[in-house]
Amino acid sequence: MRAGTRTAATMAVLCLLLLGGAVWGWSALTAPFPGKADAPICENTAVKKGAKVFPTQVVVSVYNAGERAGLAGRTMTMLTDRGFREGESGNAPRGGKKVPVVQVWTTHPHNPAVQLVARQLGPRHSVVKHKPLGAGVTVVVGDGFRGLGHKTRFVRARGNAEICSPPVE
Question: pTM higher than 0.85 for the full model?
Answer without folding.
Answer: no
